[in-house]
């Protein structure tokens, strides 16, 4: 009898334990499901970084490539500026010597004792102006979106330089009844130079702007006695001088455009 009672007691305890364990197991399973739902609804950090607008940290290779591109662009800019400066200084030296020999421009006696009987400040000033103009033309072209591929070859650029030298030579050599006829002739030649070698709105606008600004600067220099023109007929200067500045701006602009065709584009930082 005692054995039967012990067995009955153990069976009843076991059954009671099973009934008490079922609610605990159900609660644990429900908690596990809720935890899975919460974890699936929260995006992981790795997924948050993957997307169309996500930006990861820049790699060393990308940084080095960008810095090398910027360095190459800066080197090309310096080289173009140096070439334009030398071209402008040389052309100013030669053309100014022609004007002095024909007694078109007169410098004080104490000034005519420097290189090639010209004022020392003429080549540096003209070289600096040529560098600015030659760099400005491609920038304006890219800003306006105009293609500057019209006859873009060095043979065309050299012909443009030859025509410009011819216009400057005509201003000193040709003899007309008055300066107005000479000015009209040089104006037609200057517009013909633009039509033959440029034909762009930016080239025309910049050429007119350069002629206006350079004429004002020249008038200021002549007014202050730095040098003078013989037979002035337009506010201390010759009336054909703006035509020379216009054709010179177009010529230097074509040189700057040709030099800019072989350079890499400036890198942009997104």
Count all strands and give the number.
2
General form: globular
DSSP helical segment count: 8
Helix content: over 70%
The string of secondary-structure elements, in order, is HHHEHHHHEH
Rg over CA atoms, rounded to whole Å, is 41 Å
Strand content: under 5%
Can you offer a commentary on this structure?
The protein is built from eight helices and two strands; from the N terminus they run αααβααααβα. It is globular and about 65 Å long. Strands 1-2 form a two-stranded antiparallel sheet. Mean pLDDT is 75; it is low at 1-5, 7-15, 17-21, 41-58 and 265-270. The termini are far apart. α5 (154-173) packs antiparallel against α8 (241-260) and α6 packs parallel to α8 (241-260). With 270 residues, it is mostly helical. The chain has helices at residues 2-41, 45-49, 60-101, 122-144, 154-173, 179-197, 201-223, 241-260; strands at 105-106, 228-229. The longest helix has 42 residues, at 60-101.
Explain the layout of strands and helices.
Blueprint: H1 2-41, H2 45-49, H3 60-101, E1 105-106, H4 122-144, H5 154-173, H6 179-197, H7 201-223, E2 228-229, H8 241-260
Antiparallel strand pairs: 1-2
Helix pairs in contact: 3-4, 4-7, 4-8, 5-6, 5-8, 6-8, 7-8
Briefly, what is this?
With about 270 residues, the protein is mostly helical. It has eight helices and two strands. It is about 70% helix and about 0% strand.
Notable features of this structure?
about 270 residues, mainly alpha, two-stranded antiparallel ribbon, about 70% helix, globular, disordered N terminus, disordered C terminus
């Amino acid at each position: 009898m005692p054995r039967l009672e012990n067995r009955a007691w153990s069976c009843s305890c076991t059954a009671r334990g099973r009934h008490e364990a079922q609610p605990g197991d159900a609660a644990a399973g429900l908690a596990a499901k809720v935890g899975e739902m919460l974890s699936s609804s929260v995006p992981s950090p790795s997924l948050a970084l993957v997307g169309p607008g996500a930006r990861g940290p820049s790699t060393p290779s990308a940084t080095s490539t960008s810095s090398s591109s910027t360095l190459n662009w800066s080197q090309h800019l310096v080289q173009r500026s140096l070439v334009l400066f030398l071209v402008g200084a040389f052309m100013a030296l030669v053309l100014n010597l022609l004007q002095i020999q024909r007694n078109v421009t007169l410098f004080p006696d104490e000034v005519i004792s420097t290189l090639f009987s010209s004022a020392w400040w003429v080549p540096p000033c003209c070289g600096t102006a040529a560098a600015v103009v030659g760099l400005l033309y491609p920038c304006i072209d890219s800003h306006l979106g105009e293609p500057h591929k019209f006859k873009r070859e060095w043979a065309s650029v050299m012909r443009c330089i030859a025509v410009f030298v011819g216009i400057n030579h005509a201003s000193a050599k040709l003899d007309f009844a008055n300066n107005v006829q000479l000015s009209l002739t040089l104006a037609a030649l200057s517009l013909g130079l633009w039509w033959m070698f440029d034909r762009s709105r930016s080239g025309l606008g910049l050429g007119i702007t350069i002629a206006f600004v350079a004429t004002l600067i020249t008038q200021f220099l002549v007014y202050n006695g730095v040098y003078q023109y013989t037979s002035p007929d337009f506010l201390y200067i010759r009336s054909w001088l703006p035509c020379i500045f216009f054709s010179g701006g177009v010529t230097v602009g074509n040189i700057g455009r040709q030099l800019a065709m072989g350079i890499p584009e400036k890198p942009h930082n997104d």
